[in-house]
Amino acid sequence: MNKQNDDFSLDSVQAGNIWQKIWEKKGRRDIPFTEEARIQALMEINAWKGAIGNTSVQMMKNTVERIRRMLDIDERASLLDLGCGCGLIYYIMQPRPRHYLGIDYAKSSIEVAQQLGLPGSFVCCEAIDFPYTPNSFDAVLSLGVFLYFPSHDYAARVLERMVDAMKPGAKALILDIPDQATREAREQARQGNMTAEEYAQRYQGLPHLYFCKSWFVQQLDRLNCKTSFVDFFDENYTYDGLIFNVLFEKMA
Predict the structure, then answer these.
(1) H-helix or E-strand containing 56?
(2) Which pTM does this prediction carry?
(3) Does the pLDDT at position 25 exceed 80?
(4) What's the Rg (C-alpha) of the chain?
(5) 223, 160 in Cβ contact below 8 A?
(6) What is the pLDDT of residues 32-76, one digit of tens each?
(7) Long-range CB contacts (< 8 A, 24+ apart) of 185-194?
(8) Distance (Å, rounded) from C-alpha 250 to C-alpha 135?
(9) Is 31 exposed, middle or buried (0-12, 13-18, 19+ CB in 10 A)?
């Protein structure tokens, strides 16, 4: 297993602060009134444009339905959405879970979510600080979030809290995790048509955090969870084959 850095560093904290400012900026916009235009605007705030490809509203609805089915969410369920952005997943999901808690560190995104008039709760805080009652959620989702964490130690502590918040038998889905095994290829995909100089300038101080699959197996075994790796994104995704997704269940 590749050794992974488990220490918080000044550089990682500074990078986290820069990422937070970027997401704050994305959330500063007016939300349209018509349904399709509103979903399009929410998709742009949540960065479902660009790397995901030319995602249509229907494709987004299909994605949310796939999440709902994988986590066995129905109208009786409780869902923790860690890194909810502007509430896009919850806005689209049908049927919606009875209880919903959305967490995001970008205040502007949370403010957009609150404008949607949804019955769920939205809290602006760091992933490691989200409020919860132990053994209270039927499902947990974290989409495109772990790559922005400052360290593996931070990620491990978030996992501990996620599992503690889950009911026995509950499922959690973590999507879009950068794979350490394909790090070089993923960085090349991220660079795209930029020169090395342009790439270094654009992403200076904005690293992504990479993980080994074995790291998740080790952490989740320790937390008494059954772990599997699942396919989710299609070939339209820029990082198809360069990331992995984790589905796990808290054992009784």
Answers:
(1) none
(2) 0.85
(3) no
(4) 17
(5) yes
(6) 567 888 888 888 887 776 555 557 888 889 999 999 999 999 999
(7) 185/242, 186/210, 186/239, 186/242, 186/243, 189/238, 189/239, 189/242, 190/238, 190/239
(8) 10
(9) middle
H/E stretch holding 5? none
Tell me phi and psi for residue 101, to 5 degrees: -130, 115
Q: Which of 17-21, 55-59, 232-236, 248-252 has the highest mean pLDDT?
A: 248-252
Q: Do 172 and 247 meet the contact criterion of CB atoms below 8 Å apart? A: yes
Q: Domains of the chain (ranges plus CATH)?
A: 10-250 (3.40.50.150)
CA 117 to chain centre: 22
- 192 three-class SS: coil
For range 180-185, the mean pLDDT: 97
Structure tokens at 14: 């500074």
pLDDT computed for residue 39 by the predictor: 87
Give the residue among 137, 146, 138, 102 at the shortest CA–CA distance from 120: 102
Q: Tokens standing for 4?
A: 């992974």
pLDDT number for residue 198: 93
Inter-helix orientation angle 213-222/152-165, to 10°: 40
